[in-house]
Design goal:
With about 280 residues, this protein is α/β, with parallel strands linked by helices. About 35% of the residues lie in helices and about 15% in strands.
Length: about 280
């Protein structure tokens, strides 16, 4: 099914849909500054039972540009509810990965029950959990890759072009896989090719603590079923952050992928899909 733009209150979001029937699943990319291509075709098997709706968040990918003062975690979370309503969904679920996990978790707290279910993949409930990144980087081996990742983060606030952003992602991927020399890193880059980067969005959030997620003291307000997915070796959104989310939300489920870092949907694809599929099948 070809992609299309969907009008919400103040902008248009670009979506690509896969599958025709079943519970719609809004899939929210990370970054911020990436787009739906970051998932490659890794989630496509879910389309046999669900209507996958891969979303480019505001001002990212093929979505329309929106005013800079609307580039906030709260606004991007509210976009999901507006998008679901604009698409005529009476019931829908969300899956957000990395920064997208911040977005779907923010929506779950701000609008409890609007989504029938929420999947938080490699996320955190508070910016305090991101403090572990510095220690994990200091211990990251080999040293050459540690320097590569360190320099790439320093360049984020100065990224100007598609090529700049592609180079940043390439340099950072070893940090995001459990094994920094995993040959599947190259496979992932090939399968996720096509990302339209938004370096202006990256610069904005790199200077603003990546949205400054802060909902840890509000997790008890979430009413819908929640699945939390974490990689045991995630150096960015550490598994303890996922444990905190699951502990704070009544009835939440937690699945930790023991051989994954930040990219479990690529590193342990079969197990990841199985966890998502089983959870969605259990949603009332």
């Amino acid at each position: 099914m070809p992609g299309r733009h969907v009008e919400i209150s103040d902008t248009r979001l670009y979506v690509e849909e896969r599958g025709a029937d079943g519970l719609p699943l809004l899939v929210v990319h990370g970054g911020p500054s990436l787009d739906h291509h970051m998932f490659g075709d890794y989630l496509d098997p879910l389309a046999d039972e669900h209507r996958l709706v891969l979303v480019d968040q505001r001002s990212q990918g093929a979505s329309d540009r929106a005013p800079v003062d609307t580039w906030t975690l709260e606004r991007m979370a509210a976009d999901l509810g507006e998008l679901a309503e604009a698409m005529g969904f009476d019931r829908y679920a969300t899956l957000g990965h990395s920064y997208g996990a911040f977005v779907v978790l923010q929506q779950a707290v701000d609008a409890p029950g609007h989504a029938a279910a929420t999947i938080v993949s490699s996320g955190a409930p508070s910016a305090r959990w991101l403090a572990a990144v510095e220690a994990n980087l200091a211990a990251f081996e080999p040293e050459a890759l540690r320097e590569q990742v360190t320099q790439s983060w320093a360049r984020e606030q100065h990224a100007q072009t598609q090529e700049d952003s592609e180079a940043l992602l390439h340099d950072q991927l070893p940090f995001h896989f459990a094994d920094p020399r995993d040959p599947r890193i190259a496979e992932y880059e090939a399968r996720a090719a096509g990302v339209v980067h938004s370096p202006d969005v990256l610069r904005h959030f790199a200077a603003a603590d990546y949205g400054a997620i802060e909902v840890e003291d509000r997790l008890g307000e979430v009413t819908q079923p929640v699945l939390v997915l974490a990689g045991r070796h995630d150096r960015t959104c550490v598994p303890e952050a996922g444990e905190a989310i699951a502990a704070g939300i009544p009835g939440a489920e937690l699945v930790v992928f023991e051989r994954s870092g930040h990219m479990a949907f690529a590193e342990e694809n079969d197990a990841y899909l199985g966890a998502v599929r089983g959870f969605l099948q259990s949603v009332p």
